[in-house]
Amino acid sequence: MYNNPLVTIICLCYNHEKFVLQSLLSALNQDYAFIELIIVDDFSTDNSREVIKNWIAAYPEIQFIENETNLGSTKSFNKALKLAKGEYIIDLACDDILLPNCVSLQLKTFEKNRFENLGVVYGNAELINEKGDSYFYFFPVDESKKTIEKRETGDIYLSVISGGNSICSVSSMVKKSVFDDLQGYDENLAYEDLDLWIRASRKYDFDYIDEILIKKRITTTSLGTHFHIKNDSRSRKINYSTYLIIKKAIQLNRTKQEHKAILKRIHFEMFLNFKTSNYKLLSKYILLEIKQRFRILFKG
User: How far is CA 254 from CA 118, 181, 202, 248, 257, in A?
Assistant: First the structure.
């Protein structure tokens, strides 16, 4: 590997007692040797911290941060990011599993550098349940496990803001310089990935690796399962963060085409909040759409 760049894998743990060792071992046992691990336990209420402490006793070089209160993923990640020495960063939840060639494939893609300003590479993920059984893929695949629908690459901002180009965040590698430029995750949000992809795609190119890079575990407590739950406090917090992300994205838009594209995302969120009976947030989206249509008509 050219120059053997250091890769920092930030491992975020919250009540992952059953899965954390498998996840950490997957990060450690990559076919690429130059890896720094930073583990953050976000004040787990199960036995996660003890499991991690017992494991890292054999690896004194691994940094372990124990939060004294539950800070959430954005703040926990940013704490670790300040300590990271790697040129590239992976954000790994401690119930997910990196495949052995994940890091090497990501680095090779960065080395090819077919875009002027490549900042993020990502691939596909195999979805598994709590028992570790596979049941689907993040992006549907054919018999050869190749993605059926072609992914957009390069400047993907327009596609990201419209909601049409979802990113498999768990399979991504991001240049440390990109995180530094964007000042990490927005700590005012309940989740991080959509906001990061919007802000990053405004300034940097993205590339896609048509390989399965990671096994993503879906459980009843996974963030993705809470977007659609009716009358749920976590759902309301998550969906309000999406509203804040969309408002931020509107300020990043430069063209009438981009202002029109984000209406698609607004309409999707309006329907979602209607289904989840979040009428207060729905009313905010209605006002946001009116302002956006005014912006399109008179400001462009």
Answer: 21, 20, 10, 13, 8
The whole model's pTM is what?
Answer: 0.94
Contact 52, 141 (CB under 8 A): no
How many CB atoms are closer than 10 A to CB 257?
A: 11
Burial class from Cβ neighbours inside 10 Å (0-12, 13-18, 19+) for residue 120 reads: buried
Please write the tens of the pLDDT for every residue from 204-233. 999 999 999 999 999 876 655 545 566 677
Q: Which pLDDT tens digit goes with each residue over 133-156?
A: 999 999 999 999 999 999 999 999
Per-residue confidence (pLDDT) for residue 3, from 0 to 100? 82
Q: Token pair of 121, please?
A: 């590479």
CB 147 within 8 A of CB 173: no
Q: Could you please report the per-residue DSSP string of the chain? A: -TT---EEEEEEESS-TTTHHHHHHHHHT-S---EEEEEEE---SSSHHHHHHHHHTT-TTSEEEE-SS---HHHHHHHHHTT---SEEEEEETT-EE-TTHHHHHHHHHHH--STTEEEEEEEEEEE-TT--EEEESS-B-TTS-BSSPPP-BS-HHHHHHT-S---GGGEEEEHHHHHHHTSS-TTSS--HHHHHHHHHHHSEEEEEEEEEEEEE--TT-GGGGTT-TT-HHHHHHHHHHHHHHHHHHHH--SHHHHHHHHHHHHHHHHHHHHTT-HHHHHHHHHHHHHHHHHHHHT-
pLDDT above 70 covers a percentage of the chain that reads 94
